[in-house]
Amino acid sequence: MEVTQRVLEILRITGALLEGHFILSSGLHSTNYVQCAKVFEYPEYGEEIGELIAKKVLDAGVKVDVVVGPALGGVIVAYEVSRKLKSRAIFTEREDNIMKLRRGFEIHEKENVLVVEDVVTTGKSTLEVVEVVESSGGQIVGFASVINRSGMENPFENLNEKFKGKPYFYLVKFDFPTYKPEDCPLCKSGIPAVKPGSRKMNAK
Questions:
Q1: 149 marked as binding residue
Q2: Is residue 38 annotated as involved in ligand binding?
């Protein structure tokens, strides 16, 4: 079975594809949400997802020493990808709303780092992880996620010139519509919004 179809099948089986009125971690509103945590509720599917991403990385010949994911969404997927790459797996987390390494995690000078997320929309969380990696002396060799809903093939190249040529590996691309809160037709229709993600924020 083709990779995209297999991942879509897993998302449907686990109930990870949702429809409604959602506030994304980026602050944007959408009619659709992918709750990847539902996939990792089932270890066999989590392992398969990690293997599919790792295969893309290996096929591209990218050498990875450390896989880093932001808490909470990137923790398990980063771990599963690192298992298949036979690399270290660590995660960043926010303390006083600042992304950082804790729990004794370290990135050593010039280590090759792959940043892995569950879903990429604006790339904001990933860029926060990049700052942590680079401040520790690590070298970004690429990005990966289960879902790409950025609307671009490689959003990181558009976010910063220094990422030109850095690969972005993903399994499924969704072009769900997103809206700024002030432009959201669902808000204007009075449909209540829910925040299904993990990042704490105030809805507008």
A1: yes
A2: no
Whole-number percent of the chain with pLDDT over 90: 82
Flag whether 4 is marked binding. no
CATH number for the domain spanning 40: value is: 3.40.50.2020
Is 12 within the bounds of a domain?
A: yes
Query: Is 195 assigned a ligand-binding role in the annotation?
Result: no
pLDDT per residue as tens digits for the range 96-133: 989 999 999 999 999 999 999 999 988 888 999 999 99
- Say if 168 falls within a structural domain: yes
Over residues 35-57, mean pLDDT: 97
CA atoms within 13 A on the CB side of 99: 21
Alpha carbons 126 and 169: distance in angstroms, whole number:
13
Determine whether the annotation assigns residue 94 to a binding site: no
Say if residue 121 carries a ligand binding annotation.
yes
In a domain, 196, yes or no: no
Q: What is the pLDDT of residues 67-81, one digit of tens each?
A: 999 998 899 999 999
183 is in an annotated binding site: no
Domains in the chain, number: 1
- Whether the full predicted model's pTM is greater than 0.70, yes or no, is yes
Residue 201 located in a structural domain: no
**124 labelled ligand-binding:** yes
15 annotated ligand-binding residue: no
- Rounded to whole angstroms, the Cα distance separating 110 from 178 reads 37
Report whether 27 contacts 50 (CB < 8 A): no
